Amino acid sequence: MKELELYFGPQHLGMVGNFSITLKVEGDRILEATSNPGYLHRGFEKLMEYRTWIQNFPLVCRINVVEPDHMEMVYAMAVEKLANIEVPERAHWIRSIYLELARVGSHLFGLWAYSNMLGFDTVAQWAMYHRDLILDLFEELTGGRVYHIYIWPGGVRRDFPDGFADKIVKTLHSIGKCVPDYDDTFFNNPLFYERAHDIGKITQEEAKEWGGVGQVLRATGVPYDIRKVEPYAAYDKVDFKIPTRKEGDAYSRVWVIRDELIESVYLIFKLLDKLPLGKVYNRVPNPFKWKVPKGEAYVRVESSRGELGLYMVSNGEDKPYRVHFRTPSYPHGLTILEKVLKGASIADVGNTMISLYVTAPEIDR
Predict the structure, then answer these.
(1) Beta strand pairing call for 295-303 and 306-314
(2) Tell me: the pLDDT tens digits for 155-184?
């Protein structure tokens, strides 16, 4: 028998969660790949129809454990659009700062996973340590390290405590001064180039056709970012760059993640410099009796993995009538991953998978 069916994962360290891939191989060459997102977190959209508008906030966080904050944001924006709720100006700015901190933390987690996959253990430990510094900020602000439930319809749950802005700056400076170490040890390392260059390559046309967003699309040269295309929060008040590359391979995608991390740090500094005074929350009706007016809404944000959309319908009751998320990992982990793994080596499965920035709960929802 020349062909062999091989099960990759779900225990593989290259993937956060219960994700596995069934590979049909000949030698070490992949003939066919079938993604199996598993049963880690499932049924979110249906479960949300049985919970009140407020009760759904802890639930949406679980759709992406690594980065729950953009899930909070897109859900809050949908509720605000349906209920016609205004958000105070200061809350818009705080939301932007909060979401960029989440992006930094998520990219550090991605760098941990990717460098760990290639055997750069020192870099992985640096990245996880620096992510913990971001989680320290979230813990002080919200009381939670992983799930924060900070963004709320009408604003945010609380204002920044005294001295918190200075702590943000100090933390980001401590991370930023280590960028040369990351570059010398990992990004400019010939071993990283040899392992990632021309791996999982996607053309610009393929990325568009297959539904690629975020780094997958920007690594092919398309500067597409919802923060620019359809600004929300305070993103239209400050200027920032959209990092891109042209090769469309794993090497380019990881470099885009690195450049975005640095750009997010600069963006946070700009937001803090212009942060206006004022209140951070417009009160909503009693959440236990709140009935959102009939209607439908579609909103979208730029998560750390790309375009994140939410379509939601209200029938005028105390719970959503229908909910559907458009998550980046769905096309990345199913359509694109299966296509680019054909003809690849078994050794590059984890490499490719992490460069596509897949998180399993975003798929099996």
Answers:
(1) antiparallel
(2) 999 999 999 999 999 999 999 999 999 999
pLDDT of 66 reads: 87
- Tell the residue number behind the tokens 């791996």, with chain if given: 199
Q: Around Cβ 283, how many Cβ atoms within 10 Å? A: 9
Structure-block tokens of residue 330 = 């769905």
Q: At what angle do helices 89-117 and 121-142 cross, to 10 degrees?
A: 160
Q: Are 288 and 202 in contact (CB under 8 A)?
A: no
CA 341, CA 91: separation in Å to the nearest integer? 43
Whether the bond between 10 and the residue before it is cis, its omega within 30 degrees of 0, is yes
Question: Do 118 and 254 touch, CB atoms closer than 8 A?
Answer: no
Packing angle, helices 69-83 and 89-117, rounded to 10: 150
Write down all domains in the chain, each with its CATH number in brackets: 41-328 (1.10.645.10)
Tell which residue, 347, 332, 339, has the closest CA to residue 33. 339
User: What predicted TM-score, i.e. pTM, was given to this entire model?
Assistant: 0.93
pLDDT in tens, 223-268: 999 999 999 999 999 999 999 999 999 999 999 999 999 999 999 9
Which stretches within 118-200 are classed as H helix? 121-142, 164-176, 179-182, 190-196
Backbone angles phi, psi at 277, to 5 degrees: -85, 170
| CA distance linking residue 114 with residue 116, whole number of Å | 5
| 321-348 average pLDDT score | 92
Residue tagged 């970012």 (tokens): 225
Q: Which residues pair with 307 in a beta bridge?
A: 302
Q: Give the residue among 238, 297, 254, 303 at the shortest CA–CA distance from 85.
A: 297
Give exposure, 162-178, as e/b (b: 16+ Cβ within 10 Å).
eeebebbeebbeebeee
